Structures are given as structure tokens and as C-alpha cells.
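Continuing the batch. This is chain 6 of the set; chains 1 through 5 are on the previous pages. Same settings as before, nothing changed between runs. Recording input and output for traceability.
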Amino acid sequence: MAAPAQPKKIVAPTVSQINAEFVTQLACKYWAPHIKKKSPFDIKVIEEIYEKEIVKSRFAIRKIMLLEFSQYLENYLWMNYSPEVSSKAYLMSICCMVNEKFRENVPAWETFKKKPDHFPFFFKRILKAALAENDGEFSLHEQTVLLLFLDHCFNSLEVDLIRSQVQQLISLPMWMGLQPARLELELKKTPKLRKFWNLIKKNDEKMDPEAREQAYQERRFLSQLIQKFISVLKSVPLSEPVTMDKVHYCERFIELMIDLEALLPTRRWFNTILDDSHLLVHCYLSNLVHREEDGHLFSQLLDMLKFYTGFEINDQTGNALTENEMTTIHYDRITSLQRAAFAHFPELYDFALSNVAEVDTRESLVKFFGPLSSNTLHQVASYLCLLPTLPKNEDTTFDKKFLLELLVSRHERRISQIQQLNQMPLYPTEKIIWDENIVPTEYYSGEGCLALPKLNLQFLTLHDYLLRNFNLFRLESTYEIRQDIEDSVSRMKPWQSEYGGVVFGGWARMAQPIVAFTVVEVAKPNIGENWPTRVRADVTINLNVRDHIKDEWEGLRKHDVCFLITVRPTKPYGTKFDRRRPFIEQVGLVYVRGCEIQGMLDDKGRVIEDGPEPRPNLRGESRTFRVFLDPNQYQQDMTNTIQNGAEDVYETFNIIMRRKPKENNFKAVLETIRNLMNTDCVVPDWLHDIILGYGDPSSAHYSKMPNQIATLDFNDTFLSIEHLKASFPGHNVKVTVDDPTLQIPPFRITFPVRSGKGKKRKDADEDEDTEEAKTLIVEPHVIPNRGPYPYNQPKRNTIQFTHTQIEAIRAGMQPGLTMVVGPPGTGKTDVAVQIISNIYHNFPEQRTLIVTHSNQALNQLFEKIMALDIDERHLLRLGHGEEELETEKDFSRYGRVNYVLARRIELLEEVKRLQKSLGVPGDASYTCETAGYFFLYQVMSRWEEYISKVKNKGSTLPDVTEISTFFPFHEYFANAPQPIFKGRSYEEDMEIAEGCFRHIKKIFTQLEEFRASELLRSGLDRSKYLLVKEAKIIAMTCTHAALKRHDLVKLGFKYDNILMEEAAQILEIETFIPLLLQNPQDGFSRLKRWIMIGDHHQLPPVIKNMAFQKYSNMEQSLFTRFVRVGVPTVDLDAQGRARASLCNLYNWRYKNLGNLPHVQLLPEFSTANAGLLYDFQLINVEDFQGVGESEPNPYFYQNLGEAEYVVALFMYMCLLGYPADRISILTTYNGQKHLIRDIINRRCGNNPLIGRPNKVTTVDRFQGQQNDYILLSLVRTRAVGHLRDVRRLVVAMSRARLGLYIFARVSLFQNCFELTPAFSQLTARPLHLHIIPTEPFPTTRKNGERPSHEVQIIKNMPQMANFVYNMYMHLIQTTHHYHQTFLQLPPAMVEEGEEVQNQETELEAEEEAMLIQADDIPSPPDDSCSQETLAPQSDTTPNQTETTASQTGADSNPEALTASCEVIASEAVTPQDATSAPAETN
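Output for chain 6:
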């Protein structure tokens, strides 16, 4: 197996390079946004740029990046485009810019939407150019660029402007491109189409000749493009050199065909055109397929196209075809061929009279049709309407090979897609792991196309949807596995020994050499399958390693995945490994196979089972693991060994590698997806089309659901009737009671429910109708008394929800799909919790499933749920995150079992007390069952007797005292607050009596529910019962749902509603799986509600491989796709997290995002940040010692200047008195995170004066969290990098509540088009840090006021470091001075000498710690700074000293500043010192 060549990384141009470029000079003259006086438009500029910069550099990405970044498209190309100036260079320049935007993953069509007038003309020019002759005006390379542009258009059908142009190319009239006989055949199949076709003809006749000709050209465009491609393909020679332009053109063309076939709107009519052109036959017979190097990717793309052309779907209706229907289609094809053969070709009688199963294999078809002449084959094909009729006495122009392949490939039996999937091994092998076309390296640039599925807006069927996700999930896991294998194996340093064997010169924590490997069981296949049901093997390793690593290996659990590797190194002992060179040839890797642990074997060779029993202690270092091998892979390997004489892979393994458990769940998820594809996965009817991206996107909104609920109890959602009225602006609220004292929550609201269907009304009725539609009937109701104890009072919501939050809550309570977009700080979690609570109270028999992306979000939700009126016995938390819950209660399965058992004992004690109070003999509290009988015969009888005595007896007025007198449970309620009965009114006391009875009844109701725990003896059975029967609100992460789906379905798990938090951060497939964690009831899903809460303007799911992220769009969450498709959303529009000024940095990204009143009113938001002039500031950081960003490892970016500056500001804030835990330091790259952590360790350590920040982490990791003050380092100085993704910018800007300080290279970031709305606000303020060192924390200054203290301007990082050093030294000296004064106090002032001694010791220890830390503060050298700076005079005041120090830092001579820089350089942590971490981009 040849090792792939390492692809080159595209190096982004630096700022200095950008400024020196010819393009930049032109930009500054003609279109740069910051230039005030621009020169007038000149078409020659576009011609010159295109010829000199683009064509001359052969479309170099670096040049195109520069142009696109300079806003060439927005501010020059499209702004000035018109038919008069349109030229080849103009067209090509626009296409290059759009393609670059797609490559960079930034919005591409916004500019065109703003000025759409000339787009139709422009698009027609593109179509014409795409069909131009190869040696004509447009080169093949240019036409490849046009193909890519067209592909982007076809994949942007959600954009109205694009769809209006593309639709003309792919609608029914395109069938003009079919040959007449085929057209007739297709119209005959579907009579309805003939009507449409006749209508099209009539309309064409009415057109004027010019318009008709234009329409005909558009309709035939794709047919002509296919013919053009075939001519290019045929020009590729078999072995002579070929230009790569031709190969790339062919690859891009097949990619376009795949994308057209994989979307129903484009496929519907095009599939027939493609079939009629016999494109696949031409491709499979082409020379390019047989060229091993150049044709490898082309062949892979071709296989994908073949898969989609034969996809199991009805093109016209869009319905998925079952296996039976596919078989019927296949049989129809064969029998029509047999009929034609019988009627017209006597030489094919044998074929015509054979049964189908005998003749539908490739071998038998070739046997029957191979001997026929070319002309006969042509005639057979023409009878089937595959080719035009052959004129008499003329020979066919087609090659015999082509004619034979056409007939055979069309009629051969195909293996069904589900069979193919079931035969596919789940573990990747070495062939896939190192194939760059399938699993690209981290250096994927976005230039070429790949043999990968794409996740766009729409999917053909659920099978297609699952399959694409299955393949991508598998390959993303493969990429991570490749990184792990390369890391572990290279650490083991396999070398060739003197005798030709393998010797390991190193060691790896995650891998061990295999001592022995034996296959111990190959079980028989199931009926109808040809692979074994299971294959097991024993792997022996020698664990002569440190104890903690040994424990990790021995801790391998059932279902953990490991990899078996064979290496045969060719390099001699001692050869150094070079990570830049291809990995495979260096280590001599030959095979990789996956396996799943069953367990470790004990001394007797038995598998040690997981369980509560302690594990046996095994002697020695040798350990044997029993593993399951993949049966499909085993069968393929054995077949290869037997048929082709290949070596037995399973006798060669010499390394076993394990992986971290958190990253190792891929096999379970893949099995779950595969199981879903093998079952009739029933998605609710109201969701099916939306998931596939078709139909009316608002069809699942509650307003369009047939089972909309008219009256809902909003429980404690509203705080008052005024709150309710404010929550429904524009509605007329009618309250059923007029007395204002009775208009108190809770409220039931009746909404006007109108069915969408019905006859049109007259105008007169419409006004009435709209009035009625806006009227809400509100009924206040009293929650029945629950008992006399204080804890009986229900917990209440205290949040005053806004009207959009109320709309979200209302939508969540109604059936259907609810999507809530929650910008930062808008109370997403509060809304989610209120929806859950309201569903729980409105529909007590229904069960709700809560799914989130992270354990942290799930725990936040749970903590808020517990604060509401929800009985905790109905809560259950699945997965491993429950231990992080900040509560004493355990909501895990076993925690709930223990709770039930403990609660049962408590309740039985209450029963015992009740029994005693009633004077009933016996042991009623022995079990739940005896308690039930006691309630029935003793409690109920007494209550009924009591009611008969005190109830209203017709005409006589009831006596209030009787209620208390006859009450039978006085003694039981003696421990409740007394008196129980107030004696004010009959109604009030009667309600109290009924409340007391409800309290008693609830005890017995709960005991009845807990009866099962008496009958079920094992903890496992009890936990299963809780999950399936008892719990009403079940929470888990999406990963847990994917891992455990099989177990949950098997248990009979049921639920009615799903609420998903962080929905925009969950992978598409991991969002879909939770919909199907239950078996359908009578063929229908019982799912009633699906509530998704998320924010697609923040960061998407993490995808490590750039190719899957960008090319396959794998980072698109289902939430984001639904928003793109147009599913209605409720956008929360009031934030309460940050100051209004900070909110302005990101609120431009949202619809009408405002502030809650408290953001303006509360003191913490209106007070300024002490010691800092501004509440947010962008601080420009230039190169430090001539270096900006550095990159010790791929994508491991660091910037020492910014890191030191950030830490210096942090130290300054802490020295002023800011609590360190209210400050977090964020950065956009992992490399910088490690560097800042190291500097913090050096500078601050455990210093009591400074402390450590709350967190030092990346922006991506901090999503969903917040802090009062954020210091942000943007790191990059050469290219904007991934901050260009506006979603990352929104997260970065929205983490701070009170202060945000950003350190960056301003000249780079201010030019970026996507970041303009935020950076225009940031750059409006000074770009040097403004501090007020004499202002103490906290300050009384209002935000925005001029300070009374002096403001210092810090020009650069060395100056800030110098300043902080002086400030620190001064603080230590004042502390020392205070310490001495304190110790000289007269004895009378101190009560006990012992106390003084303790304080003295503490102060000495603290002072010592601070002085030790001072050694690490960057200090200016003695010679270069004035005495004043180093040792402040004892008679100056602290304020004076600090001012002097800062002035010295800012204004001292240049030599002093340089010296200061040198000290920092010597003290600073170099990027290489920082912890080396794996190359990660976020």
C-alpha cells in the first residue's frame, strides 16, 4: 500500500504581505471600505487584476484570498456590474470570489440579494460560457471554475434569487433533451405528465421566437453540458501524459452530477436525462478510470454517482421504494428485454425463455449478448428506447463494448442498499484510514473535491439521510483513529531487528506489543447470511508498566473498542521518526483491524464480568483479553486469503492500541444508525417531510396542527393579571371574574383555535373573525389545598417572562414542533424549565424526555427544575454526568431506587402514626399492600362518614364549628401549625379539611406506586421499572441516547414529548436519534411535541477534520438546517446578562435583541469598571521582539506579546482589588491557551495578592458560560483565521457581563467584512489601553462619566508589564510598612498576646509568599530606570507613587524602555516552553 504524499498547507498572507501587494494598492485606490476618496469605476482594473493576478498565478488560492478579503466582490465587482460592461474577465472574477466565499464558509449571496437586477443576465452568461468550446474563449481550467460556481448555485436553492434562475434548468421542460422514443415512453408511464407536456408545448407556441430560443437553450443546458463532458472525457489518453486541468474538470463535473442527483428538486426530471445520456457507461469505459494515479478520485466519485442514480426512490413522487418495489422494477426491465428478444431476435430465444433469476447476473448476460454483433446490440437497445433507431443498411456508430455494457449494466441484478450496509465492516481498516480522498489530512485546503457525501438542506429519503450521516460519522471517527494510531505507534518506535523481526525502541501509554493472539471462536452464520454471527479471539500482553497505566489497561470494560495493528518496519534500529514524512513507510504499517473488548480473563481462562463484586487479583504481568472481532471484516479477510492466496491477517498482529473512553463511542453510534436503517423507523407524520427538507416548513407549527389544544393551564407562569395582559400585546383579554381581588394566578387561558381548512368567508364576517381570533378568555383558578404543613405549599416561579418568552412557552405546551432561538443571556433555560413544568401539570400522564449536548447544560436544567413545583419522584437522570449535579440529591437510576426505598419507609412510618392516631390495632404499615387495605377500610370509611356529617344539608345553614368538631384526623395533624381550622367561614374550613385529606391520600397513592419496589428484588429491575413506568421527566445527553438506544427500545421505554437544549450544538444525527428511542404504537409514533432550544448564531458542533466540516457541511446541526429551510422560530428578544454597551457588540446578529429593564437599572450595570476608563476596549498589540503569531505545531497558534499583555492586565485588575474569580481569560486557539496558562503559573502562581483567573480556556470551550470580566486574546497577526466565522465572534463578544478587553492586531481584523459590525464599534474607541491606577475597586463612578482620577495611556505591552511590576512592589512595601506598625502597637490595644503572635506568623508567611512571587514579576533592570521607579520614596503617598511609576513607565527614555523589553523577554515564557498539546484549531 503506497503511502499518500503529504499535502501542502495553504499559508495565509501576512499583513505586511497584504499591504505590499499590487491588489492592495488597487483596493486602496478603488474599493477599500476605509478609503474616503475612491477613484471612479474602471473596467480595465478588473481585466488587469484577472490577467495579472488570477490567470497568471493559475488561480492561486493565496491571490484569490487576498482579493476576496479586500471586499472586491462587495465593493467593486457586483456593485458596478451591468450587461454593458460584462466581459469574460468580469464573469470569471465574480465566480472566483463566490467560490472563495464558499471555500471560506462565509455567506456568499448577500451582495447579490442587495442588488438583484442584473443577476438573470449574469447567470445566462455563465451558462453560455460553461458550454463554450474547449479551445475557444474559455480554457478548461476556467470552465472548471464555472462548474464549481454552478454547483454552489444548485446547492443554494433556499435563496430565492438563485432558485428563480436554476429552476428553469431543472423543471419538466428539460425533457426536450431526451431522444423522442424515450420521451414517448416516459410520458406513457405517467398519463398526468402528458397533460403537462401538451400545456408546455402550447405555451411555447405563444412565445416570440427569440424568447423561445432562449428558453430552449436553458432547457437543453444540462443535456449539452453532459455531451461536452463526454467529449472531454474521451480525450483523456490511457497511458500518455494528461493535463491535470482535464482530470479536475472531470472530477468537478461528476461532483455536480452527484449533487443534482442527491436533491429531489433537481433530481426529479434530471435523473431521466442522465439515464438517457448513458453517462455512467461512458465513464466506466473511459481511460481515466483505468489510470491508477490520476483516476483514483474520479473512480470513487463515479461509484457515488452510480449509487445515487439507482437510488431507491420514485423520482416523481419522492416516495421511498421498498425492497419489493425495487425487485418489481428490476423484473419489469428484464421481462421487457426478454419480450423484445422473443419478438425480434431469434438468436436470443434461449434468453427469452429462461427464468429471470437465471439470466440477471452479469456473467449470464454477457454470455447471451456477448456473441451478438454491434448492429444487433444497437437494435436491441433501440427497442428498449435506450438509443435512437438504427436506419436500414447503416452500421452503428457505437462501439460494441459500449453497447454491451449499456445492456448488461442496465439489467444486472443489484444488491440492495440495506444488504450492502449490513455487510459493511464498522471498523475502518488501513485502506480507508490513509486514503486522502476519503479521510483528508488536517491540511485540507478546500481546493479539490472529495469522494464524500454532503449534508445540505434536503435529503431523498430517511434511508439517504441516515446513510449520509452514517458515512460521515464513520469517517470523522476514522480521522480521529488515524491521529491516535500515528501518535501511539510512532511513540513505540518500531525498528527492524538484526534478524529481520520487529523491535520496539520506545513505549506508549495507549498501546502495547502483543505477546500472543489466537482466534478462539468462529460461530455459524445466521440463515440467509454468509458472515459468522460472532468471532472471538484472545489477546495476551505483558503489562510491565507503571501501576496507574497498568490499572488503565486492566480497567478496560466490556464494549470498549481497541485496534489490532501489524507493523513490519524496514528502518534499522535507532532511526529517528520524522513527523513531516509519510507515516506508513516509516513504521512499516501493514494492517489495522478493530475489535471490541468482552473482558479480561482470570487464571482459569474465564471472562471476569463487570459487577459489584471485587475483581480477582491476578499474579504476574501477563494479561489476556477476550475480544470480539468484526464478523463482516473477518469473512472478507478469510475470503481474500482462500481465493487470492493472501496471507492470514489474523496471524500477523503485533500491537494492540486502546483509546480514551470519551472519544471511543463511535462503534455504538454507528450500530445504532445501522439498526435504525434496518427497522421501519417511524418518524411522526407531521415531522417526516420537514426532516427531509420538503413541503411547507411551517406545517408542524402548533397553529397548523389538527390537534391544537384550546385551553391550557399556565400554572405559575404569570406573576399577576397585569403580567398576563402585557404578555399578549394586541390581544383582547377577557377575565371570567370581575372582582380584581380574585384575578390572581394561576390562570387557565382559552385561545381561539381555528382550523386552517374551511370555506372562504364573506368580507363582513372577516372583521368579526379577526376580533374573535384576538380574544383570550382567562379563568383564574385556585390550586386545591394540599395540606396544613408549610412544605405542602407549591413552589412558584418568580421570573417575569417577556411576551416572546411567553409565546415560546405557549408554543412548547401545544403539540407540534417548537423552535426557540435564544441569544446569549435571554433566559433559554428558564423558558425550557417552565415549558417542562407546564407540560407536567397539564398532561400528568405524559412523559417528557430532556436531551442536551453537555452534562453541564443538563445539570443547569435539573437544578432549575427542582426549584419548581415538580414532585422529585418523577425525575430521572441517565448517563455519567449526574455526579456533577450541585445538589445533595442523587437523580441517577440507582439514586432514584434508593430514594424510593427510603421514601417508602418514611411513608410507612406516617401510616403507622396515622394508624396509632385513629386507634386501629394491627400492623397496617408493614408493606405497601397492607397500607392500601388500611386506607380503603379504615381511612376512607372515616372520611366518608365525616363528609356525610358536615356537608351542606339543603335548607339549613351549615355550622362552621362542626367541621372542626367532627374532623377525624385531629390527632394525626397535631404536629402541623395550629389551629388547623380558622373558623372564619364554612368554605374556607371545608377547603382546609379537604386539603388535609388530600395530604393523607397522597401518602397512600405514592405507596401504591412504590409497591413495585417490594415485588422487584434486584436494583437493576427496580431501576428499569422506574425508567419505564414511574419517571415522568427523563434527562440524558444526546451521546447517551445514541449509545443506549438499543437497550432503551428493548426495555419498552416510552415518551410523548422531547425538549432539546443547546440544539444548535448537537450533530444532525445525534439530534435525530432521540426521536426514535421507542417502538411505534400500531405503526405510529406517539411523539406529540418536539421543542428545540438553541442559537444557530453561536458555535456549531465540533468537527475536528476541516474537510468534513467545510466540504461535507457536517458541522450543520439539525436546528440550523431547520432555520435555513424556513421552519418558524420564536426569537427571544431581551437579554439580561450584559451591559447594554457590551450587548451592542453582538446584537446586530439577531432580530431586535434588546435589554431587560434591570440591565439599565441595577447598580452593577450602571457603575463603571474601577481602574479602567472604558467598559470595553480593543487594544492593539504589535510584534514583540519582531514576532507576532507563531505556530510550533500545525494550527497550534501562539502570540507571546498578547499573552504577556493579557496576564499583565489581569494582574493589574487583581492588584486594584478585583476578585480573581470574576475574571476569565479567553483565546481563540489552544496554543495560546497553553501559553497563557504557563505565564499565569510563572507570574501569579499561588500569590495571595493576585490569585488565578476563574478560567483560562478557548472561546469554543467557554460557550454557554459567562463571567463579569473577560480578557480576550485573538492571537493571529497574519490571517484572520477561524474568527472569520461570525458565530465564533458572537460567542467571544457575549461572554462578558461588565467588562470586555480584547487584545489583537487591529490592522488585520478591522478589514474583515464579516466582522465589520463589531469591529467598527471597537475601533471607534482608542486602541491603547486607558487605565486609572489610583481609582480603587469598587468605584462609585458611573459608567461613561469622566473620572476624577488621572488617566494613564499604556502604549504597549512592555510598558504595561513595567507598570504592573512597580505597582506590585509598592503594594508589598506598603504591606511591609503596615506589618511593622501593627507589631509596634502598645499592649493595651490588643486583648491577648497570643492573637498578635498568630497574626504576626500569618502576615510573615503571606509576605514571604508575595516576595517569592515578586521574583517572577517582570522587573526593570537597576541601571536603566530611575530610583524613583524601583524604590518609591517613603514620604510619598501611595497615589503619588503609583502615578510616578506609571509616568516613568510611559515617558522614560527609549533605552529604559528597551531594557524593560529585554527583561520581559528573558522572563517571558517562550512558546516552546508552553505545554505542547495536540494540534487543535479551537
